[in-house]
Design brief:
The protein contains two helices and 15 strands. By secondary structure, the chain is mainly β. It folds into two domains: about 50-155, Thrombin, subunit H (Beta Barrel); about 160-295, TolB, C-terminal domain (Neuraminidase, 6 Propeller), CATH 2.120.10.30. The strands form four sheets. A four-stranded antiparallel beta sheet has the order 1-2-3-4, with no helix packed on it. The chain has a four-stranded antiparallel beta sheet with strand order 5-6-7-8, with no helix packed on it.
Amino acid sequence: MISKLQPLTTIISVIMLLGSCKGSDDTNTETPLTGTPKLKTTVLVNNHEIIWGMDFLPNGDLLFTEKRGRIYRYTTGGATEELTGVPAGINTNGQGGLLDIKVHPSYNTNGWVYISYAFNNPGGGSLLRLTRFKLNGNAITNAENIFTSKTANTWYGHYGSRIVFDNAGMLYLSIGEGGSTSYGGASSGNQNAQDTKSDWGKVHRMTDDGKVPADNPVLPGNTSATTVYSYGHRNPQGMIFDPVNNRIWENEHGPMGGDEINLVEKGRNYGWPLVCYGKNYDGVAVSASPTAPGITN
């Protein structure tokens, strides 16, 4: 099973091999596609700030967030309408702000919508918060904060922050390493991703109201399960659910040459900042080897 992005030549070789392994009884006579596909691009909205997350309501309306702290609805009729009642305290410094938005898969019966965002910490820096709410027209109502990181991100970078649901209705939230700095290596000053008691540098798995599922892993150093499902992540800003195989894929920003695509699995350690294929931005390799015992590769 490939869980991290290997050198591109390896992936290409595998694809070419699979493409050449047709059996002798293959009767597929489809004509190969030729020429350049004709694509049509339609601009739905423009003149917006950084659009960070988006998802569709069952009626076809599109909800999308702006990093600066606004949420909009693009209707099937072509109108763009701003929602009111966005939670206060969104911290937009650095890579923070209003981040992802996700419509509950059972929205038609429960009406929940979820957002993740950087939230002002009274003691300095920002926390990562997950809030759910309902809509009354374009007004946000019934807001509930169901997850907030226990410690702050003081350099305002690497929030991660994607939200997905699986077939069982479990919610997954990716969170970057946060902390006070980002530097790869065993001696890094930011070990949040390896600290199983820290919320940062993790993929969290929880019930749709923020509780710890009974079958979540008990990670090394802990005596009971938490919302942490996997750890050792640097900045997982992309995450998607594969409904056919019931599994979660995640991609994260690495340092130079260290971007990853991971198949997220229960209790696994994905290595950051101990090992990585890439180099720090000062040119120093993160590790002598990109692999190590106990690290998912």
